[in-house]
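Progress note, project year one: complex with adenosine-5'-diphosphate.
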Amino acid sequence: MCISSRMNCDRHRPIELIEWVIIVLLSTVILHGCGSNPYQTFHGETMGTYFRVVGNCSPTLTQEFLETELEKLTAILSTYEPDSAVSIFNRTLTVGEWMSLDEVLVDVIDIAQQVSAQTNGAFDITVAPLVEIWGFGATEVIDRPPSDLIAGALKRVNYKLLEIDESTRLVRKHADIQLDLSGIGKGYGVDHIAKKLLKQHDCSDFLVDIGGEIRVLGRNDANKPWRIGIEAPDESGKVQAYVQLSDGAIATSGSYRNYRIFDTVLYPHVIDPRSGLPASHNLLAVTVYHETAAEADALATALFVMGFDEALEFAETHDTAIALTTWDSEAEEKRVKYSTAMELLMKSRN
Ligand code: ADP
Ligand code: MG
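Model obtained:
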């Protein structure tokens, strides 16, 4: 390379292949090493679970910033907070009238409704009355709810009873429905933080994790794609497989963390909005890859509702990367089945 007039330069000599390789390698090191900020890690609590953020962001990113952003989100989306936008929406009895809601709430509803339509109602944020009677809401429940109570709750559960006008972003109820955003809230929170990191804090590489719903971009501090573990569906916290990602989100839904036991029968917290019953099958967990964490989160819940066969068929027809963990009662062991898209994703090195 000719960088000085005192060097013996041949101006007309073409750059050789080995020199190109050196140029490319050097610029990669410089871009990755000097051009970006050092990696930092933040931990905290939100939405009844933990959050973790790792990234090469500017010093403007602080623990306080993350906590404030997540508090602002829960103040809108949490049904546990009586003054949140969603709780106020749940309490209003106005049926049939268009309502203007908080922008974030409308955005979450919009994504949720799209996943509901795509999954034929397996994912449904109007599931709140069922969540309540099965003991996963504010009320403590001691016995299995009787069938008339389930039938009564079911009349108020259907995503089609909630209408959203995409152009005006207004929303209206067609019955006295109530929303539960727990099946999408964590994923939405991950996307929200990811957006902030990109737009306000100059992060080119990051990982955002809220309670196991994860989104990544770029590479880790070892300059490798992020390595995301798919946890075994039990209390062990052991990882049963890894996916290497440099863009996108991974979410898991399962029966192993949150359930009720009535008369020795285990009922998971994911409920089939069509039957009114908790999803009951040999599926222990569903892990989904998607571009956004909100969609991955909602899809994982929907596919858990569907059960093994329907979930696998959905994944194959929609080219979705999923892992299904089942309990083989004869062999008394867990089995993991990957969709074709997940097998490809696991082989790829990004
Ligand atoms: P986790 O919170 O363990 O990540 P999910 O993302 O699957 O699990 O969300 C489960 C929560 O979503 C339940 O606790 C309930 O509040 C709500 N929920 C239950 N069934 C459904 C459903 N079919 N569609 C949408 N939300 C649901
Ligand atoms: Mg979910």
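Residues 67 and 343 are 36 Å apart (CA to CA).
The two ends are 32 Å apart (CA to CA).
No further modelling is planned for this target in the current period.
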